[in-house]
Design brief:
The chain is α+β, with helices and mostly antiparallel strands. The protein is built from 14 helices and 28 strands. The strands form 6 sheets. Strands 1, 2, 3, 4, 5, 6, 7, 8, 11 and 14 form a 10-stranded mixed β-sheet that branches. Strands 15, 16, 17, 18, 19, 22, 23, 24, 25 and 28 form a 10-stranded mixed β-sheet that branches.
Amino acid sequence: MAFAPRYGGNSAFLRTNTLVCENFRVMGENCNDIWDRASRNNRPKSGIYKIQMPGLDAKDVHCVFDQGSPKTVIQKRTTGDLNFNRDWRDYKYGFSTNVEASPYMGRTMSGGQRGPRPSQCNLKEYWIGLEYIHALTNAGFNNLRIDLERWNGEEGTVTYGNFDIASERDQYRLNSVGIFKNDGNRDLGDAFRGTGFGDQGYSQYDKQDTDHESMAFSTYDRDNDLYEEGNCAREDGSGWWFNRCSAANLNGKHYGKRSSAFKAKNDASFDDGILWMTWTQNKFESLTGTTMMLGGIDINKNPLDSPTLDNCQAHADSLFLKEKLNEQNAEDFNGVYKIWADRYRRISKEVECKFYVKLDTPCGLTLIQKRKDGSEDFNRNWADYKKGFGFDVVANRGPRPGVTEGWLGNDAIWHLTNNLNSQGLLVEMDRKYDPRTKSDNSAACRYNEFKIGDERSRYTLTNINGYSSVSGNPGDAFAGADFGREGWGNDREITQHRGMKFSTKDQDNDADEYYHCAKQDKSGWWFNGCSAVNLNGHYYSSGVGEGGSKGSQMTATEEFDDGILWETWTASKWESLTATRMYVGDSDIMNVIFTWESARKRS
């Protein structure tokens, strides 16, 4: 049956009533809450449960507990038994085959639902309700997974990283959908962001006119779409976030399971079926099965309520032992956690963690540096680099808060690389995309050994060994670089960074007796005389430093290569990177993770 392998349980999970039916009492606020309340030895199984969110009536829903990653199903289509051509009130509070008693199912004065009490569990089809979807996304459950099935039995899954809708005051507007991830086996496409319709379209603006982000919700009695000449909800027989009208509409008319699902066009017909145009490439083909579900981590409980542990590896171990973190959902847990920033556990910091799980081995990497938009000034003094700066926690819902640009602090970096297990370094970087060369604009590398000295040594970069490329082959810039025509002849010798002391604009510890590298390059770094890599350099949104000729020319009074530099990748000291991230983590565990990744890519 469709979708069954993903749930690892009842093979008819979507099509029939499940054997797991715990709707006799409220089990939690949402499916994630139900999972968290259960003991490790008595985890719930996927099925029907009763939930109750604050301020809302209790509701029967399908919970999917897929390898420890709880998700609340918000919409399901399977048989076509349920009419989805509903008014605003029905879409606001929800409707289902479980309690369907009449064409209109409203609410009583006491807040309950009209109709008889259900005598059995029957959630073959339902819409949870816009109030409930808003409550879930507002609480931080913004990871949307959509399972789709076509009339010929093909099936696939897409996910969105930040699905968020507004309240009724703003017509339940679709604020965002977030990062799109396609199915691993077939191209389903990102229909939420619109598509061209080819011969079935109306104009060159079809993609723009079917983009659903920022659209208000519409029903046949509440027309909020951008189609001036008509009412999309009335014509398509459903409620949805219509534009003019849609490239995706999972609430459209159900046309059956076999060839009848392929709706022939006639003069009076509309493309009113269950639509995912970027997959079917035919607006008259109607899907036969859909499931929309929301998961993630409640940002209201994190990071302030999370425990303070030694580093992100300790958080990875803890989540893995609690059976929350696994290979499939590791990315969901990326975000802010609290760690100890000194050996005596007196100073704590909120840091951003990045998680992996491979071969039953959890890995947690601790972010120590981040550049992305130039919002933070990196031309700082010694005290600022010692203590750290930036890294403000931002509640960017779905799945967990992150941090702004910043530097963790040299004292904290010394602690992480000296008082815990041997640490490695992961560096991720992005450059301005050049349409002339069409070269890859992202790369990553790692070092098996990364260690700095304490303040008495001027935070000397004692170890930066064991380079390997993770992606994009950026080269070992820490070992120095040959600058060619842009250089001085002995470039590699005077730009290798191993053994160099840290310098800032008010402490000149570099190896150049004539220049003050930190002052000239507007940053703190392990300068030699001066650098082949400097990830703390001045931020240039154009992707080119002062005096450079690559990309947009910039005028300068002093021509220094003072941008964000990785010379062995850019091959130009004037090109400035547009984003960087530096992570430290357990060397042995990083070897397991990234050796496995390299082997997978080669195969």
